[in-house]
Amino acid sequence: MALNTPFPDFKTTEDDKHDIKVYIADLTDYCTMQNWFDPSKETEAAKLTKPEKTMACLRASLSPAIRAVYKYSLWLSAKDLAKPHLVINVLTEYYGASIGVSRVKDTSFFA
After folding, report:
1. 37: phi > 0 → left, psi -120 to 50 → alpha, else beta; which?
2. What are phi and psi of 78, to 5 degrees?
3. pTM of the complete model
4. pLDDT in tens, 38-70
5. E strand or H helix at 11, and its extent?
6. DSSP labels, 17-32
7. What distance in Å separates the CA atoms of residue 38 and residue 53, rounded to the nearest whole number?
8. What residues contact 67, with CB distance under 8 A and at least 6 apart?
9. DSSP characters for 32-79?
10. Which listed residue, 23, 56, 61, 102, has the most CB atoms within 10 A of its CB?
């Protein structure tokens, strides 16, 4: 039985750093409600019990502009583009750099 939970959405405002933080929180909540995330695991990759579903959700929730960044500007291999924790970390760095911050300190996928 599928849960009727709100689907995460990457909302854009004038504050890119805030946007990515809100999106990560929404995606974390959604994955937790769907039982795709186990916070008791040690590593980011291990916390994702269903990484393929998380990645599908992540891609589906991106706006066309953000999807273009995901596809062409993250400089990840095709193999790494299938790993949600890596994509989120690089998106966090990308959006942190776009507002003049050289490196975002908290880049953990599910903080």
Report:
1. beta
2. -60, -35
3. 0.75
4. 889 988 888 889 999 999 999 888 888 888 888
5. none
6. HHHHHHHHHHHHHHHH
7. 14
8. 59
9. HHTT-B-TTSSSHHHHBS-HHHHHHHHHHTS-HHHHHHHHHTS---TT
10. 23
